[in-house]
Amino acid sequence: MFDLVTLNDVLVKATGHGSRTVMMWQDADGAWKPITSDDLYGQVRALADMLRGWGVGKGDRVAILSENRWEWAVTDFATLAIGGVDVPLYPTLTPEQIGYMLRDSGAKVAVLSSREQYEKLTAAGDLPELEHVVVMDAGEFGGAVSFDALMCSAGEKKQRDAAFDAMVKSVRPEDLATIIYTSGTTGEPKGVMLTHGNVASNVNVSTGPLGFSEKDSCISFLPLSHVTARHLDYAMMCHGARLAYCPKFDQLSAAMKAVKPTVFVAVPRVYEKIRQAVEGKSALSPVKLKIMNWALATGKKHRAETLDGKSPGALGWKLAHKLVYSKIREAFGGCAEVFISGGAPLGVDTAGWFADMGIRIFEGYGLTETSPVIALNFPNAHRMGTVGKALPGVECRFAEDGELEVKGSLVFVGYWKKEKETAEVFSADGWFKTGDIGNIDKDGFLSITDRKKELLKTSGGKFIAPQPIENRLKANVLVGQAALVGDKHKFACVLISPNFQALEGWAKGQGISTGDHAALVKDAKVVKAYQEIVDKVNLGLPNYESMKRMSLVPDEWSVEDGTLTPSMKLKRRVVEKKYAKEIGEFYKDEATSSK
């Protein structure tokens, strides 16, 4: 456990290591550059002094619109150091969304990463309260200030400054630290207000049992505008571990090979993609496929040992490790010892597959409103298929309808300028209503089955939790995303967005033309292949949950097209609206259908 009182204590810990490297970043030539603890102190002081010179003070908002970069962390720390409030914005947002959030938050300063983000800002509409714009990349950006220019004095500010340190310490736990806008899966984005005490108290207890130290390293690639990634970075800094910033997902593979992280944290979709890549590559060779299936079967026999943190000593397992398991670990850089998943349900099938490949994944759970970690699996308390036990200081209970409610210092203080919406998510006696359905077993392990608002209720009165079923479908390499539908209907159906890279490879082997996605998803052989995937999943479901009809869509759902949130969660309302015609076809003969 740590002894953080505010998030400024993270800065104190991170800048207390002198010349030791605490961060790394990649230059234009691909070389990794170090940032020492002293460098970080000087950079934060330089930016904090400039912000104060602009009249930014306690409670003022500073927006950060950037991919993961060292400048992101410096801006965050500098804002918090002066008592300001940072407003992290996803770099995938549209100009309209950026404009809404900047106006709603009343940000006085916006720190941007690139020309692309600057052009979005200029198209975001009237921003009456925005006074200063800073751009991290080099170039001319109208009246914007260069981030490099603000760092000119950083070298001479590496020495400790008593006045600056006193200002850092003057911030209180109850002071607002950040406003994080929800991704808007269920409507208009809301600004989640988290205090220093909210996040600090959560960081204090979230990672201790994982045993991290200054020997560890981690790649920061999940968007820092998401509280999970930011929380993790704070925790790693407190442990003295090194952080390597990876701004784009397509650079992750190369970064893992270069950095060789000991800790890997990702959302389930990243793990699913790695699994699909392995299965897709093996499927191209009958010999490789046979070896992979043998390795999986061998690993399954020793799954209990893997989940217990042991390295099986059986000769067969050792051979499988040499031929297969070690190659999968190489995809993570070869040195990763701790694997964590959060942000959405991992799915037992995916967790089991990795366990059978010798990799134990610690799944956790939380929300932006809870700073974010409510529960997490640890080496000394791990149960696959659950999200672990609630962290110390987190109280849990369930409402009559199964909704999880929590209480503790991690719970946010409310939504920015939205008193009505704030009141709606708290019970009469002050418990936060998570919106998730779940249960706790006799040993204290928490399981989350689905979002309360996403439960489908058939016209026969049966409730269906879509996410576990969708996760089973996504375990197949040919499935990119899946969306179960059927609320207020007689039966459930499913829309499937293919993993087109895998599908095209499979189709070529079948002699099917792959040039036109619209034609490809209507090909009889393709439809038959996906129907078999659905049928296989249906075998393990009760009749009322089984998917009676299936439709392939010609689109690969993504954050960019608005069907997924930045944390890769399905935007169910967007999907249902976009494919209203296909859903209508499912139910056009519902009244007379015998299904």
What would you call the shape?
Answer: globular
* CATH T-level topology of the largest domain: Rossmann fold
Binned strand content: 15-25%
The level of helicity is 25-40%
Radius of gyration: 25 Å
* CATH architecture assignment name of the largest domain: 3-Layer(aba) Sandwich
The helix count comes to 22
At the fourth level of CATH, the homologous superfamily of the largest domain is: ANL, N-terminal domain
β-strand number: 26
The top-level CATH class of the largest domain is Alpha Beta
- Strands in their spatial order, largest beta sheet: 4-3-5-6-7
Class inferred from helices and paired strands: alpha/beta
Write the layout of secondary structure elements.
Elements: H1 8-14, E1 21-26, E2 32-36, H2 37-53, E3 61-65, H3 70-81, E4 85-89, H4 95-105, E5 109-112, H5 115-122, E6 132-135, E7 145-146, H6 147-150, H7 162-170, E8 176-181, E9 191-195, H8 196-206, E10 217-220, H9 227-239, E11 242-245, H10 252-259, E12 263-266, H11 268-283, H12 286-301, H13 303-307, H14 315-331, E13 338-341, H15 348-356, E14 361-366, E15 373-376, E16 389-390, E17 395-398, E18 403-407, E19 414-415, H16 419-424, E20 432-440, E21 446-451, E22 456-457, E23 463-464, H17 466-474, E24 479-485, E25 492-498, H18 500-509, H19 517-520, H20 524-538, E26 547-552, H21 572-578, H22 580-586
Parallel strand pairs: 1-11, 3-4, 3-5, 5-6, 6-7, 10-11, 12-13, 13-14, 25-26
Antiparallel strand pairs: 1-2, 8-9, 9-19, 14-15, 15-16, 17-18, 18-20, 20-21, 22-23, 24-25
Helix pairs in contact: 1-9, 2-3, 4-5, 8-9, 11-12, 12-14, 12-15
